[in-house]
Amino acid sequence: MCLPVRQQVLRALWLFAVLDAGLLLDGGMLYPRESSSREVKELSGLWVFRADRSPNRKQGFDEAWYKRPLEETGPVIDMPVPASYNDITQDPEIRDFIGWVWYERELVVPTRWIQDESIRVVLRVGSAHYNSVVWVNGVNVTQHEGGHLPFEAEVGDVLRKDPTGSCRITIAVNNTLTLYTLPPGNIQYMNDRTRYPDGFFVQSIYFDFFNYAGIHRPVLFYTTPKAYVDDITVVTDFSDNTGLVSYKVSVKGAVTAALKVTLIDKQGHCVASSNGPFGVLKVQDVNLWWPYLTHENPGYLYSMEVRLSAADERTTYEDVYTLPVGIRTVNVTSTQFLINNKPFYFHGVNKHEDSDIRGKGLDWPLIVKDFNLLKWLGANSFRTSHYPYAEEILQMCDRHGIVVIDESPAVGIKDIRSFGNVSLNHHLFVMEELVRRDKNHPSVVMWSVANEPASEMPPADYYFKTVIKHTRDLDPTRPVTFVSSSNFARDKGAPYVDVICINNYFSWYHDPGHVEVITLQLNTEYDNWHEKYKKPIIQSEYGADAVPGVHVDPPVMFTEEYQKVVLQNYHKVFDQKRAQYLIGELIWNFADFMTTQGVTRVVGNKKGIFTRQRQPKAAAFILKERRARPVPSLTSTSVTAEGPSLGLTSTCMQS
Ligand code: BDP
């Protein structure tokens, strides 16, 4: 049964307000897709590479290496893109290199891109860690700060200066982290000449993964007509069996343009259409987007085709962009997380973008293997610890119904100087970039603004209040969280979040070797948080290192048996608290991953339930078995009558 028309219209109007709030951002960052009006040319493969080993790392800029072929400036090597450069060579200096490295690729672009002035040619970098400067044929076209989000530049005018279409792309990338970058870091020069050679420095980081660097995601050209669809925002809702897709399209390059928007189902049938830059599409007999294992047909996606026509005194323009759309709602109450008004429990993992040889470089075989492992495990979700993952991974999540907590790169904010205005403004900007990129993914159900900052420091209160509010203003349709290290007494972020996410390592970093304390300590922890804040809780990290193949029974730390028994003790408490307010459990970590060298890490962090090569340890079978098992306490759970705690979201209003 449908809601009365008046109520539906009110809801649609409210969604428009949401969309307007979400459009504080200037310009879109739509994923490049081919269409009848757009071409994509990927530049993955071998690039030319040179690390600037000069003492101040500035030789490349002083000598303007971007002005001529890189091989004319000095010795160069082959470097695959996308990939981190660190583990590609046999040179320890490259592995641990800090400073500017230079990449270059030469190609010829199609003649019509040069000749046809009605085509826009855009160069896009999926991500490069951390600071990047980009030149095309020696002309600086863009620069970008931040290692995990895309950036692009229109380069048609530069290319047109050379009618042969020859194109030399030079990208300088610097992995130096400062107290004001995200994540923060700090370079320390060691000046005691009795202990360190001249110029010796180290980069301190406050996070537990290797600071892999280079061009990590695809670099590509894409084209659009001069008048084009710059951005699309969708917000979805439903009432009984009618789906509602509120959309807003922003156009660039034309003062007026005609827009036709069509929603197409998986069979290729048009199910709704509309004209104009905003509107509400109504879908009868809607197929909702459901998470994996909650429905026989999870991850249902419609295709929203946006067709633009415009004209100027010289020519006419047609642009077509097709966006995958999943129709679903997200709500939070004081004890539950609701997807499509049904309680959702995060049976999840934390991941890293990390693997042998390629480091953090995007790698399709690895991505597909990981999704197969997630399904084997019965996992329905993950957190993008501790930075935004590749768009290609989120697209897989959309298609497979894997639910995502989308985390910013704000990991390791530990120094008081990283709470100042410079850092805060940068953090706000990064949240804008993240929301702009990921706002249309149905799999993304929550934003995480940071992991384990030093939230006890006095400026943390204002800092996180501001970042969380800004994130909500950017996207009022999703809850916002911030991941706390286990210290209930000092936490400053919790009053502002919608869901409490807590990490703790009982019997590991606290009371090492004493698994018998886990249940008591975890119960106390949960009750403290929930009594005070009345918000649902996710156990956002728990786990123990296990060196694969090391066995001792009775268990001792670092063995596969110990990892298993830690998990089993945590699970006892999860099973009790799940009936109350616990809404998820995310193991730390899906797979072993590389870290900087240190006395607590044996060739990386070994808390994976899979090895770095994706082979299961004993603990993986514990999780697989747990997730296959029905949870008796849940069978009677239904949506509570309590009002939603997120007064701001559309989906809350309608639940
Ligand atoms: C947590 C951090 C995570 C670390 C983990 C560990 O959030 O990044 O890798 O500890 O020490 O506190 O294994």
Number of helices: 13
The proportion of residues in beta strands is 25-35%
Number of strands: 32
Name the strands of the widest sheet in spatial order: 25-26-27-28-29-30-31-32
The best one-word shape is: globular
Would you tell me the overall average pLDDT? 92
Q: Which stretches of 5+ consecutive residues score pLDDT under 50?
A: 632-655
Unique ligands: beta-D-glucopyranuronic acid
Q: What structural category arises from helix and sheet content?
A: alpha+beta
User: Any idea what the radius of gyration is?
Assistant: 25 Å
Percentage of residues in helical conformation: 10-25%
Distance N to C terminus = 15 Å
Largest sheet: 8 strands, parallel, barrel
Task: Give keywords.
about 650 residues, alpha+beta, 8-stranded parallel beta barrel, 6-stranded antiparallel beta sheet, 32 strands, about 20% helix, about 30% strand, globular, binds beta-D-glucopyranuronic acid
Account of the protein in words:
With 655 residues, this protein is an alpha+beta fold. The protein contains 13 helices and 32 strands. An 8-stranded parallel beta barrel has the order 25-26-27-28-29-30-31-32. Strands 3-2-4-10-7-8 form a 6-stranded antiparallel β-sheet, with no helix packed on it. Helix 9 links the parallel strand 28 (444-451) and strand 29 (480-485). The radius of gyration is 25 Å and the shape is globular. The protein starts with a helix and ends with a helix. Bound molecules: beta-D-glucopyranuronic acid (BDP). Beta-D-glucopyranuronic acid binds next to loops.
